[in-house]
Design goal:
EF-Ts_dimer_sf, single chain, 320 residues, 37% helix, 4-stranded antiparallel β-sheet, Transl_elong_EFTs/EF1B_dimer, 10 helices, Tetrahydropterin Synthase, Chain A, UBA-like_sf, translation elongation factor activity, 25% strand, elongated, 3-stranded antiparallel β-sheet, alpha+beta, disordered N terminus, Helicase, Ruva Protein, domain 3, 2 domains
Amino acid sequence: MLRFTQAVRCGRPLTRNRLYSSIPNKSRVQLVAELRKLSNAPIIKARQALDENNGDFDAAVQWLEEDMRKSGAAKAEKVKDRATSEGLISISVLEGGVGSRIRSGSGRVKASIIELNCESDFVSRTEEFARLANDISEIVAHSQTHQENTSSPFTTLSVEDLLHLSHKSGTVGSLITDLIARIGENISLRRAMLLTSPTSSNTAYRVASYLHQGRVGALDLISLRPSQSSLFNDDSFIGDLEKLERALAKQTAGFMTLGISEKRNSEDEQETVLYEQPFMMLGGENASIPVRKVLDQWQEKWGLEELAVSNFARWEVGRD
């Protein structure tokens, strides 16, 4: 679908302006060229759009939109049974929590993680596919589908419902269909999850996120109870905390993390427990110290009553 309105990326509006001039005396060659810039349509389609609309540029744009919509639906139907084993994980953080530099005014956490699949590794590495994955994760983060009464801060969302979720340029489903029409490969939204922080009067929540080459993603919900709330106004504390949070998210993603503190039967299984892993992602002298001990030391250093990873999600393309 052709887009002329604003899109939101990482909380900031990106204006996509029309690429053509409204001056009426442009030549047919110039109009065809501008139609192609605007829509990525083949030259034959751009010419046909002008012919069908007696040279009216605005009408030609609308004609191309409708034509792309129809051809996209037809291509999507044709390739819908093809396997989609490649793809990307995408994360969007809408609100980062107490003291966060990411829209922290509310003090809440709101973030999303999605997996978008395609047929080939080549397509998964294209800018268009990455942009689509990012757009969908942002739409999910802005959605109001979280179940407030759930016991978990993570809510698994219905893919079918998300495909019908409205967006400025249509629906999530139409965004996917549009790209299928352009690249000719099957694309599917495999899963999506929304993270929102619990309501608490004495515990502060923040989110840590990390993506490794788009193939592995982690969202960690961090809980803190500072002895004094003024700590969140201390730049040194926030800087130190952000470094720790990023290392925790990288640790969650970098290891095959399955749990936070649960005991496992074997030494190999213990490596899947976050708190028992050597904190390699923080580096330095902490690289050989278990995550649990580093968190205890950090908590003591800043005089916190609590510092913990209270929940997390670790996703890898093609793996449950």
